[in-house]
């Protein structure tokens, strides 16, 4: 770019017109930058930053103002700048930096590209004027944190990226964002906040719509998960001293077969409906997966399967039955449960609470409620190993799946899918 | 003067690296002046800044005009080069 005839000619022209050298340089810069002003492509338009960078370097060379080429910062520092140019990046000691905050510049600039190539998070468009030396600041870079990072890692590892959903709209949004399926479809929302149980037809319509929205991708439909802190006003749910150790999840459903039978029937109805309207989705495998919460024993899975076969002896061609691994019993007995399951999905929220004996909602034991605790990770590992020994997939649908710090750990443990709270 | 047209098919448009390569090619034809035009603007193809300032996106039709030297050969070389940009 320094060799460019337009650059030299415009500076020369300005000098001949009577400007001093620096003014001639600045006017040439403004003229060339303005040539980029009309470009409607963000990436190509951002090249005007590179032009200003080059002119800045020429100016520094002319005035002798070149900044010190060695940038020193304490280890772990975050660099805060009004504006950075690609040439500045060459002067940075990246080993001492943990991130960059910058006011001006676009996220497609060369500065961002270089920072990312160096493994450094960078956030542009930050109002930096009020930040003082020593302030604690945070860098929010979607490339490093959050969904894009997790999804890139999951894809690179060849695993599945699922989304959790509580409504058909959320399923549609997740599929539109590229999800390979729904790793957790919560059905309790249909049951909560009303005076009577939803009818078989009402449930059938919802499940059918949910399954259709997945367009043949897996839908892990979790059977009614109430009890604990979720109460149904139209069901007898007497107060319990320890509701989280009480009648919740699949236990509640098995204790109320009249209610559970309606849900299971509606699920099979919906599967039949969709198989009829879209046979290809079922030819490629069974997209509908029935996921049982709070399972502690093989007996519970067998009871559910028995109910299913009472409703329809051929249920196995409509749904596959698997479980959530979220109790210590399920992790410890993972091998025998895997023998009866078509899949495992690890619910890390409850698993952490039960393994660590620490109430999720109690701030006094927030330190004990730690999904990274060795005991929790061991429980996850037990479940994954048992699943793979029986040739069934093991995924994760708890909040840990949405934590970018956990992504590499989970992938290295062999989890086949990560289901995120949103994509 | 000889003219021809070519469509840029590089998916992300004309970037600095291919633009720089184009400038090198054009500067090699010392006896010729090469201009590149999009509707409404025409620039010297020996100036990288000018080329980049056109903001040429994928699918843009460019007109090449050459004055001086072996006009036919230069037009063909520039056209083939632009058509071959793939990144």
Short recap of the structure:
Chain A is α/β, with parallel strands linked by helices and 423 residues long.
Q: C-alpha Rg of chain A, in Å?
A: 29 Å
End-to-end separation of chain B in angstroms reads 30 Å
Strand content of chain B: 25-35%
How far the N terminus sits from the C terminus of chain A, by CA atoms, comes to: 41 Å
Largest beta sheet of chain A, briefly? Answer: 8 strands, parallel, barrel
Helix and strand pattern of chain B: EHEEHEH
What value does the average pLDDT of chain A take?
91
Number of strands of chain A: 11
Beta-strand fraction estimate of chain A: 5-15%
Assembly annotation: heterodimer
Q: Record the strand order, biggest sheet of chain B.
A: 1-4-2-3
Structural class of chain B: alpha+beta
The residue fraction in helices of chain A comes out at: 40-55%
User: Radius of gyration of chain B in whole Å, from Cα?
Assistant: 11 Å
Q: How are helices and strands ordered from N to C of chain A?
A: HHHHEHEHEHEHEHHEHHHEHEHHEHHEHE
| Class computed from helices, strands and strand pairing of chain A | alpha/beta
Main beta sheet of chain B? 4 strands, antiparallel
Provide a count of the helices of chain B. 3
- Total strand segments of chain B: 4
Q: Can you tell me the residue ranges of chain A where pLDDT is under 50 for at least 5 consecutive residues?
A: none
